[in-house]
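Recall that a protein's primary structure is simply its ordered list of amino acids. Everything else, from secondary elements to tertiary packing, is in principle encoded there. The following example makes that idea concrete.
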Amino acid sequence: MSTPLCLLAEQYIVDKCPKYNHYYTPKYYEILRAKQYNKVLEIGIGYYDLMKRYTNENYVEGASLYMWKEFFKTAKVYGADIKNIKLQGIDTFVVDQSNPTDLIDMMNELGNIDLIIDDGSHIPEHQIISFKTLWKYCNDIYIIEDVTDIDYLANILKDEFQDCQVLMKYRHPNDNQGFIAFQKYK
C-alpha cells in the first residue's frame, strides 16, 4: 500500500518506508493523516555514514525531518541527536536521550510538542528514559521506533501514566522490529 507519506519518504530517501527498509509509513499515515500539528520533534536525525546503508548513496542528513516538514506543512519541525547535525530550515538540538537533564533543557526551550518520534539510539533503556521524561511535554502522539520487544515496552510505559493509551503496536514480520504509538487521553 502506497500512501502520500510513503511517497514523501521515497522522495526524501527515508528508511521508514517499504522501499528502503521499514514498513512504518503506511501505518503512520493511518494514524496521522487527519492531524494538523504545530510542533513536531524527532529524536535521531540520521547522518549520512549510518543511513546510506539502509537507504542509498543519495541519502541526505535529516531526511525524515524534511519528510515531516512537508507532510505537516504548517508545523515547526525540530530534530534532536547526540551528534551536532545542522540542517537547513530545521532547528536541531544536541541531546543525549539517556540524560533527562538534556531532554528537559531542550523542552524548556521548545515547550510542548504535538508529535514526538523517538528514532534515536534504539536502546530500550534510552527509549524508556526519553519517554518518561518527555511524555508530560507531548500533546498528542508519541512514537517509539525500532522496538524489538514491543509488548514489554508498551506495558511498562502505559501502565505508569494514567493519561496514556497505546494507539498502535506494529511489528513487520520480515525484520522483527516495529513501533509503538502512544496517545494522550484528552
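Helices lie at 4-12, 24-32, 48-51, 63-71, 100-110, 124-134, 150-158. The mean pLDDT is 91.
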